[in-house]
Inverse folding.
């Protein structure tokens, strides 16, 4: 590799990107067994070579610094600073790629070789052996995510909430990532704030608590007090995160493409694209501030739910400051009410469902990560939505399409459902709608039954009934997979899957019929936010 580098002409431009790894990730892997394993390793090696080739940038930058002498001392200082920055980044990139790439290579290799290994196992042992393999690989992924942080930690968190996509062993092992991000040292957080706003920390805030309230994969939150007396929550992005995200995203493509044969048949390309999009968008706190403000407007007509007011003068792309809201985590309150105060529990969950119907059907922009840690309840039983980094916008056509599917489901018009799903971009391998109709039935049949034949005592499906539905749906997916689905549906499924889990666990008595009919009879184009 070194000789090849020396033979390149001086004026040849090699862009410092992850293009070789990205190109490899886009190729469909058609081989199996050892050939596929070798292909994965070669892809990682090519990426490492590309990283090493970036070392040329250091030499180029040194030459630029020498040439800058004629432009004066300030030009030399600028070039030397860029040289120092590049020298610091290069070994860190190589170290990260080596550790993460080797972990993924071991995971991929074990799955690729499973086909050969399983052929020599008795049928009675095969299921247990595969379960053990899933758990071993999930722990590899979990441990590397905790060590590396950044985008891989975020990806692990996303995957841990998708039992419909991953084997249960993966979901169980990755669950620890939901609240296990290591905090950034306070000195680094203070340095980010002083750099972003150009003032000492004590000039920005009257008080700043050095102990974080929460540490996540992208940023961490500290409580502070402004000089005007307001209590605020300050979310600061982890320093240096931009440096590693694109590399992590490229590695993710390789990983999921290589192991997708061990996962339920799904449109994995769209799923990967949506994961990449959401992780990248979460790096932009200015976008998050706009989303939070817009969703706050959409929720003005829904009583009992709100968002924290933005403090714009202390917010930018890497810092987001809001007024501090006191409350408890959603599930802590629901656990205390469950079996004790059913009326309050019903009211809270009714408000929760109402809020997401308002966002999806009439707002056109929705919070796409409603896990309990992002929802607080005040002493007045008001719900407060937090963390708008993961959000999804819907086009007018998509909004009308999902609205039409809901209408058609109420009257059980399967022809309209199939036609609308086709227009929205859903495609099965056979071109027939049976799998799609089965999925819609699993999600919305209970809504239709509640409207046509309201029986409050009917309740929600039991765990056994739900497992039967999932088993039947997976069987249909095996027979006729969904090869294509719209990206926005990935986020919709995530939202209503999370909310559905809460309803199934707490079994509230909610007037689903009245709630849904209220939206179906409201003018669709009366959008709550521009």
């Amino acid at each position: 590799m070194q000789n090849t580098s020396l033979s390149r002409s001086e004026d040849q431009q090699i862009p410092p990107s992850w293009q070789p790894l990205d190109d490899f990730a886009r190729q469909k892997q058609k081989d199996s067994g050892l050939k596929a394993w070798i292909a994965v390793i070669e892809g990682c090696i090519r990426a490492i070579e590309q990283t090493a080739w970036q070392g040329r940038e250091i030499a180029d930058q040194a030459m630029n610094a020498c040439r800058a002498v004629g432009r004066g001392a300030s030009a030399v200082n600028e070039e030397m600073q860029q040289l120092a920055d590049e020298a610091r980044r290069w070994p860190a990139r190589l170290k990260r790629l080596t550790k993460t790439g080797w972990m993924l290579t071991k995971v991929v290799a074990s799955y690729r070789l499973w086909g050969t290994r399983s052929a020599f196992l008795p049928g009675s042992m095969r299921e247990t052996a595969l379960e053990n393999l899933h758990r071993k690989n999930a722990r590899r992924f979990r441990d590397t995510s905790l060590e590396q942080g950044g985008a891989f930690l975020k990806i692990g968190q996303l995957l841990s909430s998708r039992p419909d996509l991953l084997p249960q062993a993966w979901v169980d092992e990755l669950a620890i990532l939901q609240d296990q991000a290591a905090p950034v040292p306070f000195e680094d957080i203070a340095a980010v704030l002083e750099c972003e706003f150009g003032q000492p920390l004590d000039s920005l805030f009257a008080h700043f608590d050095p102990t974080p309230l929460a540490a996540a994969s992208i940023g961490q939150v500290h409580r502070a007090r402004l000089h005007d007396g307001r209590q605020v929550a300050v979310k600061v992005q982890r320093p240096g995160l931009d440096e590693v995200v694109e590399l992590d995203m490229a590695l993710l493509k390789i990983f999921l493409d290589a192991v997708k044969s061990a996962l339920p048949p799904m449109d994995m390309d769209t799923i990967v694209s949506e994961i990449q999009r959401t992780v990248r968008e979460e790096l932009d706190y200015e976008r998050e501030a706009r989303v939070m403000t817009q969703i706050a407007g959409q929720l003005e007509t829904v009583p009992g739910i709100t968002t924290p007011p933005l403090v714009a003068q202390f917010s930018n792309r890497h810092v987001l400051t809001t007024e501090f809201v006191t409350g408890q985590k959603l599930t802590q309150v629901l656990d205390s009410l469950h079996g004790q105060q059913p009326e309050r529990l019903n009211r809270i969950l009714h408000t929760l469902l109402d809020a997401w119907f308002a966002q999806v059907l009439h707002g056109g922009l929705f919070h796409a990560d409603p896990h309990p840690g992002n929802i607080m309840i005040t002493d007045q039983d008001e719900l407060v939505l937090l963390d708008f980094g993961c959000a999804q916008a819907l086009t007018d056509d998509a909004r009308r399409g999902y609205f039409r599917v809901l209408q058609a489901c109420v009257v059980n018009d399967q022809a309209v459902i199939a036609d609308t799903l086709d227009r929205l971009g859903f495609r099965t391998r056979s071109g027939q709608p049976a799998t799609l109709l089965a999925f819609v039935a699993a999600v919305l049949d209970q809504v239709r039954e509640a409207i046509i034949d309201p029986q409050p005592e009917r309740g929600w499906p039991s765990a056994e009934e739900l497992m039967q539905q999932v088993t039947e749906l997976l069987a249909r997916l095996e027979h006729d997979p969904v090869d294509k689905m719209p990206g926005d549906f990935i986020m919709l499924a995530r939202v209503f899957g999370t909310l559905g889990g809460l309803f199934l666990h707490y079994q509230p008595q909610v007037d689903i019929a009245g709630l849904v009919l209220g939206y179906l009879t409201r003018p669709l184009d009366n959008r709550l936010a521009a």
In short: The longest helix spans residues 73-118. The two ends are 55 Å apart (CA to CA). The CA atoms of residues 194 and 319 lie 11 Å apart. The chain has two domains: 2-182+241-281, 329-530.
